């Protein structure tokens, strides 16, 4: 150990052996203290490290606290299904059967004819039955004269033959040769542009006018025709709402105003213009039916028709008439006939009356044909008027 170098090495080795355990102990104590400090420190909201540590418990930006996106139920919008209209032949056959079941007018006539050799009292009762059925005095006189004359000439008292003669006389006055088709031909301008056919529906409130507009749209859709509706009865919010409901059922658009009491002519103009722009085949415009002021009604309907014709000619002006109103309905019909040029009549609720003779009297009075008839409240209870089918339904 006399060598100083060796002595220094020995001293260094002993010091190292003593210091290493001490250093290890100090490092472990420092790590322990730092761990305890982290546990005692609170986690602040919005701390990025804390959110990462929490994982799925952190809420995504824009979400309401406490709500889970996996539990959210999206709003379900129910779109009304477009109904499939009944075919024309099917609905006409069904309507004939319904009219036959409700034909009190025809049943009364057959009851008299079944008596065989008719007495003077029977002839008088037959005449009264026709008058009570709203056939009209002039038409009744002509029918009775023709029936009496032919029965006398043929010297027949056979109830079946008398019935056949009566059928022919009734049919002659119903007018089988009248043009009952709807003029729905699209017009072509000089420029070559094709415009939609326009239909104006008129009639007093309560006749089923708005419902008839919807049913007519459904009838045309069954034939493959594209249709747009205009709610120009702006004085009754319910009328526009009802038309929108029909539009949803049929699958057609409806032009309306959001403001009650808006200018009806403006709505009618917008409807025709929109139909023209969209290339729609037919536009049908519903109107108000207020008879309190004849001059006001004339001005209103005249204005509506004029503004519609700025875009396309009005092909049809159809009067909707309630068949159950009888002679009161005739008074209404005269007013509208004076106000606007009618092209046809739609008789509603024909199955609800024993007065089927109104078909004859209203045509005779107004000089325009019954083109459509409504029998019942169903969506397909509207069909083209068939004179022979009508008369046969009365007498079968």
TrEMBL record:
Catalytic reaction annotation: GTP + H2O = GDP + phosphate + H(+)
Main location: membrane
Skewed-composition ranges (Low complexity): 45-64
Domain SRP54-type proteins GTP-binding residue range list: 369-382
InterPro entries (alphabetical): AAA+_ATPase, P-loop_NTPase, Signal_recog_particl_SRP54_hlx, SR_rcpt_FtsY, SRP/SRP_N, SRP54_GTPase_dom, SRP54_N_sf
UniProt record, GO biological process: SRP-dependent cotranslational protein targeting to membrane
Superkingdom in the source lineage: Bacteria
Record localization: Cell membrane; Cytoplasm
One Pfam match: SRP54_N
Chain positions covered by the region annotation Disordered: 35-75
Protein topology in the membrane: Peripheral membrane protein
TM region positions: 6-27
EC number of the protein: 3.6.5.4
GO CC field: cytoplasm; plasma membrane
Keyword list, A-Z: Cell membrane, Cytoplasm, GTP-binding, Hydrolase, Membrane, Nucleotide-binding, Receptor, Transmembrane, Transmembrane helix
Function: Involved in targeting and insertion of nascent membrane proteins into the cytoplasmic membrane. Acts as a receptor for the complex formed by the signal recognition particle (SRP) and the ribosome-nascent chain (RNC).
Binding partners and assembly: Part of the signal recognition particle protein translocation system, which is composed of SRP and FtsY.
HAMAP family named in the record: FtsY (MF_00920)
Family according to the record: Belongs to the GTP-binding SRP family. FtsY subfamily.
Name of this chain's protein: Signal recognition particle receptor FtsY
């Amino acid at each position: 150990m006399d060598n100083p170098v060796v002595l220094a090495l020995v001293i260094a080795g002993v010091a190292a052996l003593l210091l290493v355990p001490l250093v290890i102990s100090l490092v472990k104590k420092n790590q322990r203290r730092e761990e305890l400090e982290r546990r005692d420190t609170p986690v602040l909201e919005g701390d990025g490290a804390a959110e990462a540590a929490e994982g799925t418990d952190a809420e995504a930006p824009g979400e309401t606290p406490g709500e889970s996106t996996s539990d959210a139920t999206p709003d379900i919008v129910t779109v009304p299904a477009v109904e499939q209209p009944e075919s024309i032949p099917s609905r006409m056959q069904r309507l004939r059967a319904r009219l036959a079941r409700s034909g009190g007018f025809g049943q009364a006539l057959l009851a008299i004819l079944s008596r065989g050799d008719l007495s003077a009292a029977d002839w008088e009762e037959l005449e009264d039955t026709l008058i009570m059925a709203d056939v009209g005095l002039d038409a009744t006189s002509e029918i009775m004269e023709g029936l009496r004359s032919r029965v006398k000439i043929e010297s027949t008292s056979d109830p079946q033959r008398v019935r056949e003669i009566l059928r022919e006389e009734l049919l002659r006055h119903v007018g089988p040769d009248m043009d009952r088709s709807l003029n729905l031909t699209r017009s072509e301008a000089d420029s070559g542009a094709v415009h939609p056919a326009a239909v104006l529906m008129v009639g007093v409130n309560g006749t089923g006018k708005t419902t008839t507009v919807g049913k007519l749209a459904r009838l045309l859709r069954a034939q493959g025709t594209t249709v747009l509706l205009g709610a120009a009865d702006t004085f009754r919010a319910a009328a526009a709402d009802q038309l929108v409901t029909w539009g949803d059922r049929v699958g057609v658009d409806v032009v309306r105003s959001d403001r009650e009491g808006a200018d009806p002519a403006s709505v009618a103009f917008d409807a025709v213009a929109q139909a023209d722009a969209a290339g729609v085949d037919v536009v049908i415009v519903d109107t108000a039916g207020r008879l309190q002021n004849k001059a006001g009604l004339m001005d209103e309907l005249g204005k509506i028709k004029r503004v519609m014709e700025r875009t396309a000619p009005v092909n049809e002006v159809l009067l909707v008439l309630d068949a159950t109103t009888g002679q009161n309905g005739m008074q209404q019909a005269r007013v509208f006939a004076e106000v606007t040029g009618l092209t046809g009549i739609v008789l509603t609720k024909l199955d609800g009356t024993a007065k089927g003779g109104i078909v004859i009297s209203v045509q005779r009075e107004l000089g325009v044909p019954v083109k459509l008839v409504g029998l019942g409240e169903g969506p397909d209870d509207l069909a083209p008027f068939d004179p022979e089918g009508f008369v046969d339904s009365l007498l079968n």
